[in-house]
């Protein structure tokens, strides 16, 4: 009788990490959840993404996560990822699953940070997305498809 082999499902792991993000009770817990999420990315996934990212994703040339210490760092990363995804979509490129996942995760992290808006410095609050801003820009955080505004 064969023993079933446990294969890690990246989508299930992402869903688990989204649940951890949702449970954050303060802005710095969101930052920590994002750092943990990025640290869990295997080098081969980062490498696949970096074939397309041209240096805008939150990983360095050694495939290590970027330093994120403040909510503003997370929000800046969200904007960098989101704007590049919009550009890639506008160029007609199909986005790899790694990039779509990254965009989705950072979008939800940004929305979670918006729950703590009164605690954030003004320069960070200016970077918060509205719940509809992602869809209004023509992108879906959940599936990466285009939607009419």
Detailed description of the structure:
The protein is mostly helical. The chain has one domain. It contains seven helices and no strands. Helix 1 packs parallel to helix 5, helix 2 runs antiparallel to helix 5 and helix 4 packs across helix 5. The N terminus and C terminus are likely disordered.
Tally of helical runs: 7
What separation lies between the terminal Cα atoms? 55 Å
Helical content (DSSP H or I, runs of 4+):
55-70%
**How many discrete structural domains?**
1
Quaternary structure state of the chains depicted: single chain
Shape label? globular
Mean pLDDT: 81
Radius of gyration: 16 Å
Secondary-structure element series: HHHHHHH
Q: Which structural class should the secondary elements be placed in?
A: mainly alpha
How many DSSP-defined strands? 0
Strand proportion: under 5%
Low-confidence stretches: 1-7, 134-149
Sheet of most strands: none
Topology:
Elements: H1 10-22, H2 27-39, H3 43-53, H4 71-90, H5 97-114, H6 122-125, H7 133-136
Q: What would a concise description of this structure say?
A:
The chain has helices at residues 10-22, 27-39, 43-53, 71-90, 97-114, 122-125, 133-136. It has 149 residues and is an all-alpha fold.
What labels describe this entry?
single chain, 149 residues, mainly alpha, 7 helices, globular, disordered N terminus, disordered C terminus
